[in-house]
Amino acid sequence: MFRQSSPSIFIIMLVATVQMTRVISAVDSKEEPALELYMHDILGGSSPTARPITGLLGNIYDGQVPFAKQIGFIPPQGGVAIPNANGAIPTVNGVNGLPLGTGLGGTAFAGNNQNPPQTQLGPDGLGLGFGTITVIDDILTSSHELGSQTLGKAQGVYVASSADGTTQMMAFTAMIEGGEYNDNLNFCGVYKIGSTVSYLSVTGGTGKFKNACGIAEVRPLISSGQHVIDGAETLLRIIVHLKY
User: Fold this and answer.
1) Which is more confident, 146 or 90?
2) What domains, with CATH codes, occur in the chain?
3) Which residue has the higher pLDDT, 216 or 8?
């Protein structure tokens, strides 16, 4: 009768243990397929989804400065723009009057990033937009078109967190519509304006996303313009990688 040697039995048991460990690890991680969202952040116009509420730009936007009269950011006919502390004339988008550097698009609102304008500085030497808090109720869709299937809303805030206006600290909840158990995902992190990709942390969720964690890749896209709006839109593609 053939009898297996002790070393052979040991090797078989070792291989079986390794395979079992891989199976258990795969079950424990419970990594789901990536979730793809398109976020439409619109400032100004007739149907905005975002509004600066605090900070110097927020005060100008809402006409909250003393004796303010809401005339927008573009000087009235015959008016003269007040220079910045460095002597530069504030630069705005001529279409909707929003100051460059506002929102997630930064200087992209000018429509020409080859020679971006100088950051508008305050008397303290910091950018005028530094510290501005913008509240959002952005639309989430299944594709890049604003008129495509709506998946839900992204509600929260982003804060101009760098003096030169290149980053926005974002904290928002993606509320997915149609979920039976209030399916929400929470995001937090720094979005880098002008970067090809930024990363946000998934800090938790509710409903089917309960105990979820992971990361989200955020990439800016250029809107196709098929859905005409009169505000300044920043289109973000968000790829979410989840684990439980």
Assistant:
1) 146
2) 35-55+119-243 (2.40.480.10)
3) 216
